[in-house]
Protein 1
Amino acid sequence: MAISPGVYFLCLLNLFSFGAIFSSATLFTLENGCNFTVWPGSLAGKGPSIGGGGFALAPGSSSQFQAPAGWSGLFWGRTGCKFDNAGKCVTGNCGGGLKCSGGGEPPVSLVEFTLNGSDNKDFYNVSPVDGYNLGLAVKAVGGTGTCQYAGCVKDLNIDCPAELQMLDSGSVISCKSACAAFNKQEYCCTGDHATPQSCSPTKYSQLFKNACPTAYSYPCDNATSTMTCMGSDYAITFCPTGSST
Ligand SMILES: *[C@@H]1O[C@H](CO)[C@@H](O)[C@H](O)[C@H]1NC(C)=O
Ligand SMILES: *[C@@H]1O[C@H](CO)[C@@H](O)[C@H](O)[C@H]1NC(C)=O
């Protein structure tokens, strides 16, 4: 039986798009360096949801996921989760239970990715602009370009000033951004402080910078914060070595 040209064309097309997805897929390895379970959450800005939007990661374990070319989105870590009827997480909670259908509730440290951005480079950064709950790091594996390590070296929950602390049973579980805590233009870089010239580091952003030196520490902090790499895979670590929790 002769195969119709139409069917043949479709098969060829599938073959090509399948091949293209494989050749340019980026591998994300999520690793839990904490001594407690972390429930990674992820939210896609462009492309499919990674890891179903959320899953449990036992201490010392890792999981791998592929993302297609052009993918963009966020990763964060949730702690103290219970997915019963009243279920939620103590930090980084999202809508949707185990599998996030929305972003994590601040204060939450974020990893942001854009694959195949301008000049086909991948862009990534660690951002405590929405506050901090866990140490995070991104390491490029292979790839060409500057491909800098982006990550935290200290646990900001230990150094968080009282006015920014979020407490649970007397322990600091996360640290609010100064913008969220005080809602002032100078911290949020709004109003009179909306331009890169008038949006400056503060004593609070300096604390975030000390804990996560390569991360965004205030809204206009773009000089050292966005990393680029090409053709790389990425390891994302919760509680990287050096940050104590
Ligand atoms: C930071 O971003 C602003 C606006 O997004 C831009 O005008 C400025 O040139 C950037 N600075 C650096 C060092 O990239
Ligand atoms: C995405 O970027 C990678 C290099 O980082 C490249 O190999 C791949 O061809 C690009 N894919 C598309 C669809 O542009």
Protein 2
Amino acid sequence: MTAIILELNCNLWLGKKKLKNMSKTKLTINKNGSIKVEGDFEIVDSEGTVYGLEGRTALGLCRCGLSANKPFCDGSHRNTFDHESKAFDLPPMKTK
Ligand code: FES
């Protein structure tokens, strides 16, 4: 299985001095399926209301659009969603 893994680090800074790593979240773009999120995270809706995750530290987010339980994956993507997850570099950000 091929997957793209994106790791996000959240650090606490005092000026230019890093005090500590606050958390680590990993997003894995699964081949032909969901985005697996694991680590320290919260998920909020468009109004900022937090989804109750009942203590889960890993879950799948739907990226195929077929889940009946969006934004969470319910497995509906199986055999219906085709996307290779090959990592690539984005172009440099444009400056204003
Ligand atoms: S990615 Fe699994 S249901 Fe959409």
